[in-house]
Amino acid sequence: DVLYVLLPAEPLLRPELALLREHLPEAGDKHLILDLSRVMIITSPSIGSLLLLQKQLAQQGRRLIFCGAHLATRCIFQVAGLDAHLEFVENKSEALTAIQRPAVESR
Question: What is the Cα–Cα distance from 46 to 28, expressed in whole angstroms?
Fold first, then answer.
């Protein structure tokens, strides 16, 4: 099972992520796909929230996949060295396909 969330742009992103983390236990054992297509710029606090969310899911044996990220957003993760720890795909369709495959160990 999968939960798909189309995230809003900043400054609404961080509060949305806080709500998502708060209600994540209610989602059961679903994997999470976060669509970043509306996120043109991402702040450090929002990146921190995404990392906490990824850690929370990983501890529960669930996956987090990002899709739709703009080049500038992906570059922020690359420069910070975080892209090796997070799973990015181009779009929702690829994310749904990726969920069916085993997770990559380095993530």
Answer: 24
CA distances from 45 to 39, 50, 59, 77 (A): 14, 9, 21, 13
Residues 6+ apart with CB under 8 A from 46: 10, 13, 14, 17
Residues 72-101, mean pLDDT to the nearest whole number = 94
Token digits of residue 73? 């957003």
DSSP β-bridge partners for residue 5: 34
Burial class from Cβ neighbours inside 10 Å (0-12, 13-18, 19+) for residue 23 reads exposed
Beta-strand runs (E) in 50-97: 64-67, 87-89
Q: DSSP state, 19?
A: H
Tell me the pTM: 0.92
